[in-house]
Amino acid sequence: MKKEQGxxxxxxxSSLGTLIEWYDFYIFGSLATVIAGQFFPxxxxxxxxLSTLATFAAGFIVRPFGALVFGxxxxxVGRKYTFLLTLVLMGGSTFAIGLVPSYESIGFAAPIIVxxxxxxxxxxxxxxxxxxxxxxxxxxxAHRRGYFTSWIQTTATLGLFVSLGVILLTRHxxxxxxxxxxxxxxxxxxxxxxxxxxxxxxxxxxxRLKMQESPLFSKLKSEGKTSANxxxxxxGNKTNLKMVLLALFGATMGQGVVWYTGQFYAQxxxxxxxxxxxxxxxxxxxxxxxxxxxxxxxxGHWSDKxxxxxxMLAGMLLAVLTxxxxxxxxxxxxxxxxxTEQTSLAKKIATLMPVPGTGxxxxxxxQTQFFTDGLTLHTSTKDTLYADAAKKTIKPLVTVxxxxxxxxxxxxxxxxxxxxxxxxxxxxxxxxxxxELFPTRIRYTSMSLPYHIGNGVFGGLTPFIATLLTTIYxxxxxxxxxxxxxxxxxxxxxxILYLSNKKTIH
Amino acid sequence: xxxxxxxxxxxxxVLGPVAVFFLIRTAAxxxxxxxxxxxxxxxxxxxxxxxxxxxxxxLFGYYAYKGEYDKEV
Lengths: 506, 73
Description:
The complex is a heterodimer.
Chain A (H helix, E strand, L loop, with lengths): L1 H29 L1 H8 L5 H32 L2 H21 L3 H4 L2 H31 L5 H28 L5 H12 L1 H19 L5 H8 L7 H6 L2 H35 L5 H15 L1 H13 L2 H26 L12 E8 L6 E10 L5 E10 L11 E7 L2 H22 L2 H8 L5 H17 L2 H11 L9 H17 L8
Antiparallel strand pairs in A: 1-2, 2-3, 3-4
Chain B lengths: L1 H32 L3 H29 L8
């Protein structure tokens, strides 16, 4: 009983810190547009370049690098102090981003400072997960590792949930008037989610400081059997290197794309392809996460009984088979061409704003259409009426936003929920799977790299490649799915052929 | 099963260079179409990060072909 209480303390301490790290990492991504306006003005090419570096370098280069740096440290010094260090680094950088003056105030120093802080965030994230997963797994009894580590697995999704919740709450609570509140948020309110992080981090550090080092690592250390060079042992030794490669190509690569498709691309698809309104596209994801999160624990627990392999591979198989019909259904649900309009309710307002000193006017036409299933379509068309009748706006700026009724809303929640369930299948058991693949002395290093390449690189690229594909195959709204389906498909075949369902107890 | 594992190794070995070829071709096309420093950085990062991964996939295929994964692991 006392042992059981102990493991829950370990899980709470580890999960809370990891959740905060994910929260910190996501708020930057979720607020990328607002941050870009503050620090990386598009009119300045150098600032825009720094913005690109902040986006791509932090996720793709620095994360795996952090996995190597902190993995090595964790296998030499110990798990506890290493993942405490990553937490301080992440929390400190996030808090500092909230304090950096804008580009308007301090010029180029602003984007450079933000870029450096973002790189620190990526570095810290690269070191955190492996430490937390290893720490919990090494406290857990071998036959329940799947169950206990699955709590760590919930943190990435919950971190996203908390970040979305905090952003939406802050965005709507700065003024009684919705539009003024959003304007205040874009001006200075976006700093609140960053500054809030420091409170969470202090609490988490306090809890983690009270924890003991992992018993398996302590035993190794007392026997003088820790690795002197974990990087060399992990990647310079063929026996271990082939396990690292198998973990990457047979498990984490597929897990990464399923994870990002369900949690990020689905929301981006709702907003950009289906044109669902900003708030609704986010609350749909929030509900799907709320209903889906318990499945991490369910599948983690189940993997202790039937093995990790087939649960993870079933998640990938379902993703490969059903992504196209699921995303197609999202398009159909939001397609106004297939709906009946209540024409008597339609509204159209046109406003003219004279451009001083030119005789031209900017015309904005706001049109609202209502449909029988509760969908409301807002269309805004902006063009210029020139004083010179021969001149015409070549391409008016048209923005479309849809608010769906309850019926469609919950159907969409159901579809995204299914995708989150796939995420829980591939992600729930993976910490236990990775931990069991490598020996204690080099576990932190060995598991961190394939995890962050799979999740950070293959997964992190999903939104970018999916968008790129839709620009190549312009007539096909589902073209973006080719990437996750192909990567998950290859990973599935490799997993079926080479992964074992047997547990290796190191 | 062992034969299948080894034979599939050849596919993974070939897939590495094939992926690199398509990556570099796409990068070149993108840079030609949008020749800004931004595009260079983006695709530079992708090529830089994917070269070792593609090498890893070929190495994985080589190990599979050589029978390193014949035993259940």
